[in-house]
């Protein structure tokens, strides 16, 4: 069994999903995968590589802490995952996230609510992926609406949240409302929601917001909850493993540069548009989004809207274009589809989606798609799982 080193700064965030993708491929290639976190290692990279004598390495992240990676790896096959330009020389094999595709998804989502202006809030330093998202977002907005996107063009400190939030208020204040804001990632998006709260702005009256990464801790705890684009980090890890296996088998392989893209947009309160804005209905829709899969009913939702049943149902329909039951069923259907794309057995899906029984799930799904659960899973994953 060959040893493969997965080298990262820290085992956090996107790195966890990317490493999981490498482990997905390890059995097929008969690899033993060892993770090395440089931020927690007292040894230089070259010494670690010599100790493990790997058949190949995946170098994740943008830093090698001032060391020369070519010297450290001593001719060992290496694939670079989301590196910076200095690490990602044209002669090397790389796998990167598709920053452009992410920005286009964000522009499309924000344009749905027809904001009066657009803005981009990038990362604290001008990384390649942040600059690329800015460029493509501005182009997409201009192409779709003819408007220019305002850009927060200053560096900011991660540790100075109050400072950056005050600067964001000053940046956003002159823009025509509502502003459609694209934040480079979920941490940055939290700073946007806090800045808007300080300024007394509400969503969607004054702003809408889309972010990237779908880190639930950030997205679900913010007010409003944050719509976010989930990247295929696990798929990126698989791509790295496949490319490394190809490189090990063929050391003379010409340089390859591959990309992994977004997999889904998780729409939350920050970009949800309504035909008629009513904060009571907004809260009801958010409760349904969070709890529809727990088995809640229309009666549960109506009990929380401070209106008569008949008026609440009318207001809900006017705002969303759907009945409360339709909204609940739409959320459940989306969850069913998400689970069908995973390894969750079909017999376990009904209970995890708030549906009464397997037989009801089968009728419910066939009525919506014209397909059985197994047919849909096979069509969308390339295989049938139990």
Outline the structure in words.
With 386 residues, the protein is α/β, with parallel strands linked by helices. The protein folds into 3 domains: 2-97 and 233-261, Response regulator (Rossmann fold, 3-Layer(aba) Sandwich), CATH 3.40.50.2300; 99-231 and 266-271, Response regulator (Rossmann fold, 3-Layer(aba) Sandwich); 279-381, Arc Repressor Mutant, subunit A (Orthogonal Bundle), CATH 1.10.10.60. 47% of the residues lie in helices and 16% in strands. It is built from 16 helices and 12 strands. The chain has helices at residues 14-29, 45-52, 69-73, 99-111, 128-145, 161-172, 186-199, 216-221, 233-249, 279-291, 298-302, 309-320, 324-340, 349-352, 358-369, 373-381, and strands at 2-8, 31-37, 56-60, 78-81, 93-97, 117-121, 149-152, 179-183, 207-212, 227-231, 257-260, 262-266. Strands 2-1-3-4-5-11 form a 6-stranded parallel sheet, with helices on both faces. Strands 7-6-8-9-10-12 form a 6-stranded mixed sheet, with helices on both faces. Helix 1 links the parallel strand 1 and strand 2 (31-37). Helix 1 packs across helix 9 (233-249) and helix 4 (99-111) packs parallel to helix 5 (128-145). The longest helix is centred in the middle third of the chain and has 18 residues, at 128-145. It is globular. The two termini are 30 Å apart.
């Amino acid at each position: 069994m060959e040893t493969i080193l997965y080298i990262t700064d820290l085992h956090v965030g996107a790195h966890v999903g990317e490493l999981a993708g490498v482990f997905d491929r390890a059995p097929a290639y008969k690899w033993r995968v060892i993770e090395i976190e440089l931020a927690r290692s007292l040894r230089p990279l070259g010494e670690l590589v010599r100790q493990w004598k790997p058949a190949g390495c995946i170098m994740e992240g943008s830093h090698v802490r001032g060391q020369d990676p070519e010297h450290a790896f001593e001719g060992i096959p290496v694939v670079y995952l989301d590196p910076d330009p200095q690490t990602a020389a044209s002669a090397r094999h790389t796998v990167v996230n598709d920053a452009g595709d992410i920005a286009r998804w964000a522009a499309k989502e924000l344009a749905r609510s027809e904001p009066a202006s657009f803005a981009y809030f990038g990362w604290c330093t001008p990384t390649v992926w942040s600059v690329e998202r800015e460029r493509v977002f501005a182009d997409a907005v201009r192409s779709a609406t003819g408007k220019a996107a305002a850009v927060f063009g200053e560096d900011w400190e991660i540790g100075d949240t109050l400072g950056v939030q005050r600067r964001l208020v000053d940046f956003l204040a002159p823009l025509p409302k509502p502003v459609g804001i694209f934040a480079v990632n979920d941490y940055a998006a939290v700073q946007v929601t806090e800045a808007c709260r300080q300024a007394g702005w509400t969503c969607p009256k004054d702003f809408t917001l889309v972010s990237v990464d779908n880190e639930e801790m950030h997205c679900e705890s913010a007010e409003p909850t944050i719509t976010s684009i989930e990247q295929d980090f696990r798929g990126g890890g698989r791509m790295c493993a496949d490319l490394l296996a190809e490189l090990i088998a063929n050391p003379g392989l010409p340089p390859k540069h591959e990309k992994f893209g977004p997999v889904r947009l998780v729409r939350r309160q920050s970009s949800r548009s309504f035909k008629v804005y009513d904060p009571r209905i907004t809260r009801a829709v958010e409760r349904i989004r969070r709890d529809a899969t727990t088995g809640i009913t229309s009666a549960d939702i109506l009990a929380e809207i401070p209106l008569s049943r008949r008026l609440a149902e009318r207001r809900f329909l006017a705002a969303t274009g759907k009945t409360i039951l339709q909204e609940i069923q739409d959320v459940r259907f989306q969850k069913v589809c998400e689970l069908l794309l995973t390894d969750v057995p079909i017999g376990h899906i009904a209970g995890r989606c708030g549906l009464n029984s397997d037989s009801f799930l089968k009728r419910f799904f066939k009525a919506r798609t014209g397909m059985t659960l197994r047919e849909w899973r096979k069509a969308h994953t390339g295989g049938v799982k139990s």
